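ugh ok so i messed up the first submission bc i forgot one of the chains. this is the corrected input, ALL of the components this time, i swear. 409 residues overall. if the numbers dont match what u have on ur side tell me asap before i send this to the collaborators (the ones from the other lab, u know who)
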Amino acid sequence: MSKKIYLDYAATTPVDKEVLQEMLPYFSQNFGNAMSIHSFGQTALQAMDEARKNVADFFGCSPAEIIFTSGATESNNLSVKGVLKSYCAQKNRDFIKPHIITSLFEHHCVLDSFRAVEREGLAEVTYIRPDRNGLIKISDIEKALRANTILLSIMYVNNEIGTVQPIEKIGKLVKKINAAREENSFPLVFHTDATQAINYFDCNVSKLGVDLLSMSAHKIYGPKGVGALYIRKGTPIKKIQEGGDQEYKMRAGTHNVTGIVGLGKAIELVKKNKEKDSKKITALRDYLIEKVLKEVPKAKLNGSKIKRSPNNANFSFDSVEGEGLLLSLDINQIACSTGSACSSGALSPSHVLLSIGLRPEEAHGSLRLTIGKFTTKAEINMVVKKLKEITERLRKISGTVLKEYYSKK
Ligand SMILES: Cc1ncc(COP(=O)(O)O)c(C=O)c1O
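and heres the new structure output, hopefully the right one now
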């Protein structure tokens, strides 16, 4: 096999050719700093305004409600820490320690932001466990809410198992809670990490009822190192980084103009092609899931089959070690990802898979295959063929290793 197969679109996507074309003039030709008064600066500012308008159009909000960041990690950190900072900065109030809520299977940049503020003693945190299908129950959120809950952060689409959360329903609940709160009291702020949702789902912020929404360009065929945060007008949030007055004084630092131009073009293309791409990718995903479950022995799909992102298939393979599987696939020119992450030299099972009740060995034997707009049916056929061969071989090896191990005991 000569051509490489990429099935890791949830990790990152290639920059679309049209996006690249749009970006190119802003490297060396229109290279101005968007904060400069002269014409170089004004050209950059104009391009950025255009991009901001595209992003705002996509989310159905005003351009003044969009700020550009370095990616979803920053947008998420700013959301969690910025809301808390705003609460702590309130004057004329007897300080009551705030309560904040998130889920156990958020991306680490959300989860660890919550853990950090909890460790620092700034807030009490409730971590909601998703169910076995990888879905958050509204009733669990209702149970967790307190009079002093000021922030709720639930991701739109999970990055590992692709399950889709009921953001619109949660938004309605938040609205009800806020309507019952005393006037001038700190509201319950609703944040969603929509990084994996942009390509396929409705992200109209009014419809969703969110106050804050994070996204990243490199998941939507845009460049790495740039993202955005939607901040509903009036949301209590403070900047967490000191410096210049960029981004309505919410995010200091020279603008990544080239990246922002790329983000603006990428989101315009998502809007234009969403329906067509979703349809094609969903069909390929269903074909992949069906074929793997039928042809690869002892394969199991992780996460809901129905409430699932069009591009995601996540499997556990009994008696197979995920890292071994991943490396063997890589040798065969197939790129995907596993549910184990290397931390401090040891393999730790995915917190997402553990949160939905998988045993550590099941989580270790997992594989995430994520499809994109350039994936073909022939590639899926090749991947399933290789998966069959490799899992069979790895099972034989692990069987032999175990036999040898026990014979020596
Ligand atoms: C759900 C989710 N949130 C946040 C991030 C982080 O995004 P970025 O790479 O833009 O910092 C990712 C990327 O892996 C993600 O999938």
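quick check: The chain has two domains: 5-12+274-407, 17-269. that seems consistent at least. Residues 323 and 338 are 7 Å apart (CA to CA).
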